[in-house]
Request: fold
Amino acid sequence: MIFVTGPLYSGKRAWARKLLGCSEQGLPARAVWDVQELAADAPDLPALADRLARYEVVIATEVGAGVVPADPAERAAREAAGRLACLLAARADRVVRVFCGLPLALKGELPR
Reply:
């Protein structure tokens, strides 16, 4: 599995589309994105990470930077998203951070 992460609107999906050779209309069923949104309601983050790791490409937006939310539920959701990202990175063969449309290999090598 390739775990792709980076800030909002940084080019993660566009890079994954190019990697998977698909159109600009979307990503194929072998990819999943916005997984950070699943973390808040997940009763078992390791089980969620195991399920997501079955996809070829998993995309998550980094949500930990910036102002800490005042709302406790929002803080908990942000914490869960960060923990899920760590679990996915541990399970991934490759971790790629995309920033300004540029991929940077954090684990493994960039796919050709």
